[in-house]
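Quick log. Single chain, no ligands specified.
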Amino acid sequence: GRVRAKNNYILPILRARIQRLMSAEMSWHATPDSNAHEARDKATVATNLVTARWSGAEMDGKLRAAMWLSFSCGVAYLKPFWNPDLGGLVAATVILPHPFQKDPLTGQGVPTEYTVDADGQPLVDPETGDPLSESDAAFRYRQGDIDTAVRSIFNIRLNPDAFGLLPAQGFRWLIDSEAVPISVIKEKYGDVAKNVQTVEGVAHLKQFEHLIASVGNRRSPSLSGFGSGGRGQKQLPDRDLTLLSEYWEAPSDPLKEGRLIVVAGKELIYDDDLPQGFVPHVAIYDEVRPFDAQGRPTVGQLVSPQKVINTQWSLALEEQALNGIGQWAMFDVPGLSEQITNISAAHIKVPMQSALANRNIGDIVQRVPPVRVSNDRWHMIDEAKKAMFDIGAFHEIQRGQIPPGLDSGIAIQRLQEAENGQLMDAVKTLKSSLLTWGKQVLGIARWGYGEHEERWIPVERPDLGFLLESVKGTDLPDPETITLDLEGFRPQSKTAFNAEIRDAIDKQWIDPRAGLRMMDLGRGIEGAFESEQRHYARSRSENLAIEKGEFELIEAPKGSPLAGLPALLHPDGSPYLLPMNDEHETHIRNHEELLLDDTKPWEMRQIVAVHINEHQSMLQLLAAQVAELEAKQTAATAA
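-> predicted structure:
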């Protein structure tokens, strides 16, 4: 049969492409809409929330899965949604009047928060009437949190005239559908889904889902919201599955709040306004194609030159197979061919027509020379490879090769920058999509976190600790009132980050020890900014504590450098001021932001002024000590 070569240059090109697109750290930053201290605090909360959900939802892996899909399909979609199975376990509570403690003004029981059991009954100490907060009988539930699913072109359909998910791109509605186990739908939606049955077409949809699963990253979590059994899992029969479709309509003049319709099989499950006020879907493009919602897949452009390469290699190998098996041409001398080789089809015998006496063996037997591959074939292969590398921006530098004759480090670095510049359009498009995802996460968090439940938001940076203890939905800003950004989102390696730090150390801009710490953090020179240091974090946490009223005003005790002056203590008795350890100038600058904010209560600003006076007094004391020491040294030198 025919010999078919299967070279694969597409896979390494795509691997290099995804590595370069995602080499930048996801450094989120929210800018407030005003200089008010409250707006700044909300922007800080937003930054920490988006950063925490990026890590908590394993978005790095999901984004890679979406990008692999977009390489082949042109576009994939991220769908942020509220997942009730996430979040920490908390005890359910209810507010009831205390049976024994009475309000002297109303005569009614003091409102008290009680935990409840699985039947909704409050857990009360029968002797004191106090809540049993640590009871094992308390009913606990998960608070829920924001999750994200990856959706493919086989799940999402837009209105035909749309070429994007923005109103300016003609977007009005989309339909998100997939094959889902009927048991899952009944568990999720309850009685309203009790009559859900299977429908025709589920088998075809399953085939599409299995097809797209083979394109995406099979190890990536949550490729869809539900799923009907992935690769290696037990597949459910079609009778146990049904079609779940969500119709999302964006807000418009006729529908100010938009519309969401959920249909399972042939049963209407939900029909109401958009829960969060927007359509929670984000398009992840490989490359944007103007006026086309499907985008431009890189694989589609690479297939043609790859076919040329494989075709030419196949033809060259076929020629060699036909002509290069070690054949011998010889006169048909009885017994001679078997002595040279007994390989089948290795003999080309020429009828003997004359005497062969006095002939040497070289005249009687000749080896058939191997076939030479045409130079035209090599030329076509080289041109096809160049076309593929240009399409994928995959040249010598990206393949770990240095172009011949290039030995200048600066020239190599500029060549790398030029190659990264070829990805500018893809980088800008991806950044825009991720910023949309971040704003949608904020919108869902404001809706889902509520006004009463508090939850932890971990700060990603290990050197800052926790700037915020907890957050409610009311602590988050409106996504439309802030500017969300990804700082330094461009193809950049860890080597480039460390090069910036080494350059700053060489020029004595930063201390070498601080530079080594920044190399360990992996965020480049950004770690040297004042806002990234512990003193800034400590002063900001003090501002938040003062705003919450978490302080006690006392007189500095004996033994303190500022004995007799007003001082602030934390509720646990620890001082706000660390006389010999605080970076007083940084603290004063940050506290003055609160002091000079005319929107804050004057009583609170007076407390801030007292604390600023502590730092200023300590600076004056340290300056006096330095002056006294210098005077003694001068006197000793003169003597």
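Residues 216-233, 462-468 have pLDDT under 50 and may be disordered.
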